[in-house]
What we know:
alpha/beta; 41% helix
Amino acid sequence: MNGNNEMLIVANWKMGFSHDESLTFVTQNYNGFCYLAKHNKRSIVLCPQFTALFPLHVVLKESAIKLGAQDCSNHARGAFTSQISAQSLKSLNCSYCIVGHSERRKYNGETDLAVAQKTLLLLDHGITPIICIGECSTEFEQGKTLETIENQLKPIHQALAGRCSSSKYSPICIAYEPTWSIGTGKVPSRKHLEVVYSWLHTYTQKTCPGMLWKFLYGGSVTQQSIPEIRKVPYVGGFLVGGASLDFQEFKKIVECIE
Ligand code: PGA
């Protein structure tokens, strides 16, 4: 994981690139990605589909670009057809893994408990979890953002109880991604973000003070939205979805963050 004063920029390709397209995209933009990742004040993480992790690990071996998975199993091993273990991700050189993305919660019934179990397995394997949390539009309109994210985080803090002072269980990334902002072009106001990130800071210091936490923002991150969001205190990075599928757009976003 990068140092805590460095910006973490995570490209979540979702299912936007096929296996072949992921390889072509990286090969064609290899020098550009290396240039972006060379900066000592930021880390770039690419999260392709599972199948592309191994070939990309080979392609990126000599570079500073990091690899991340989009999910992992909440079981260590066993009869869990189709699932991918944290241990396998480790052997593919994944440094990061997204868990609890709202699309997984919505389409795959991902629960807060499963997210907590995945978080522990990842930490056990030295992989930094990127835990996605965030409210839906109704919760936002009803002013229930903090209540929602606290409920999402509670099982994680319970799972981490007793481990908070172990450096083995640190660092952890939390990505605040209001679901109403994902892929919609809508971004929360700076005032709203300031409340959320300051709450996240206080909450994690209170519940797990010994750990290193990094807070990311995700949801319609573009070169237009980023200048305002990056001014919010405690925002240590970004989870970029749609805009990360276009190298020029991604590059402009990364360059705005400096
Ligand atoms: P978006 O997606 O940038 O396309 O809104 C972000 C995410 O879902 O991580």
